[in-house]
Amino acid sequence: MTQEICCARCAQAGKTCCQQTEIYVTMNDVRRIAVSTSRIDFFEYRPPADPAYLGEDNDPHWQRHVFSLDGTRRVLKQQSSGDCIFLTGSGCQLGLEVRPLVCRLYPLTYTYEGIEAEPDERCPVKILCRERTVLEVFGISTDQALRWHMDLYREMIQPEGGDTDEDWSDLRPAV
Fold first, then answer.
1. What gap in Å lies between CA 110 and CA 142, rounded to an integer?
2. What's CA 61's distance to the chain center, in Å?
3. 131 belongs to a structural domain
4. What is the DSSP track for 154-175?
5. What is the helix (H) or strand (E) element at residue 111, kind and residue range?
6. Which range of residues forms the domain containing residue 153?
7. Maximum CA pair distance of the chain?
8. 73 with 24: CB under 8 angstroms?
């Protein structure tokens, strides 16, 4: 079963992870998306809708590197419905290698220490796709998940300017 089939089944059951979810993006996520879409107006800095999220302490690296001192973080903009700006009627308009790392990893749960055994409790993958593991359902190898996890934390820990060029003038659409 592919990710698209399971996600389509999920969408029929109700709201999906692309709806009503604040999606954190690293500066390298921003760069990949900007190059792919020729846009730079797709993210913003804002505090979490649920203030309790600021107080979570299960991953000090996340808290330290994702949030600014004012409690905001870089997230994808949402449509007026709450859907991700890149969600269309036929799914995500971003290719897998362009999507934010947190989207590629979802519904896996993780901290700096590693990837957890159980998927995010909000994802109905176990109800919809019982016969396989989360990685099998989404067609992700363990090595790929571990690489994305490592990439996420490496990119998250980079300083704001990090590996990017704030000038944006060098961004060109992918061919």
1. 13
2. 17
3. yes
4. HHHHS-SSTT--TT-TT-----
5. strand 108-111
6. 3-157
7. 48
8. yes
Q: Domain tally for the chain?
A: 1
Which H helix or E strand runs over 135? Answer: helix 134-138
Task: Determine the Cα–Cα distance for residues 175 and 169; give it in Å rounded to an integer.
Answer: 17
**Residue 40's Cα: distance from chain center in Å?**
17
Question: Residue 165: inside a domain, yes or no?
Answer: no
What does each of the 175 residues of the chain score in pLDDT, given as a tens digit?
455 556 666 666 666 777 778 999 999 999 999 999 999 999 999 999 888 887 788 899 998 999 999 999 999 999 998 889 998 877 788 988 999 999 999 888 899 999 987 777 777 665 556 667 777 777 788 899 999 999 999 999 886 655 444 444 444 333 3
Q: How many CB atoms lie within 10 A of CB 63?
A: 14
Long-range contact set of residues 116-123: C-beta below 8 Å, sequence gap at least 24: 120/17, 122/17, 123/10, 123/17
Task: List for the chain the helix, strand, coil content (%; round to 5).
Answer: 35, 15, 50
* Tokens encoding 157: 């820990």
- Tell me whether residue 110 is in a domain: yes
